[in-house]
Write a structure and sequence with these properties.
By secondary structure, the chain is mainly α. It has four helices and no strands. Helix 1 (3-14) runs antiparallel to helix 2 (30-37). The protein is rod-shaped. The protein starts with a helix and ends in a 6-residue tail after the last helix.
C-alpha cells in the first residue's frame, strides 16, 4: 500500500467525512479502516465513494456506517470491472476483425477466394 494511501486512510479514520457535516455510527473500527486501505483506490475514487455513501445513508435516514460505504464500493468496483471486461471484449473483436481483413487481403493478393 502506498504511503499516500495510508495517509488518506488515517485522515479518513479520524472522521470518514471530515469536510462534511455527517453523523457516523459505531461501525468505524480499525479493522474497517485497514480493510478500506487495502483497496488501493485513488483519492478521487475514495471521495466519490464516500459522497455517494453519505447520500445513501441520508436516503436510508441513518448515520453513515461501514455498510453504506461497502455497498457503494462494491458497486463502484464492479462497474470498473465490467468496463474493463467490455474494453477487453472490444479489443478482441477488433483484433479478430483485423485478422480476418488481413487474411482476406492476402487471399485477394494471391487471387484466391476465401470461403467462410
Amino acid at each position: 500500500m502506498s504511503d499516500s494511501l495510508v495517509e488518506q486512510m488515517k485522515i479518513q479514520e479520524s472522521n470518514p467525512c471530515h469536510n462534511l457535516n455527517v453523523v457516523t455510527d459505531n461501525s468505524w473500527t480499525n479493522d474497517v479502516f485497514s480493510a478500506l486501505g487495502k483497496l488501493n483506490l485513488n483519492g478521487r475514487t475514495i471521495k466519490n465513494i464516500l459522497l455517494t455513501a453519505v447520500a445513501y445513508a441520508n436516503a436510508d435516514n441513518s448515520a453513515l456506517g461501514f455498510r453504506h460505504v461497502l455497498a457503494i464500493a462494491k458497486t463502484e468496483l464492479k462497474s470498473d470491472e465490467d468496463l474493463d471486461k467490455e474494453v477487453l471484449r472490444k479489443r478482441e473483436l477488433e483484433k479478430k476483425k483485423q485478422t480476418e481483413d488481413s487474411l482476406q487481403h492476402m487471399e485477394d493478393l494471391a487471387g484466391t477466394s476465401r470461403k467462410d
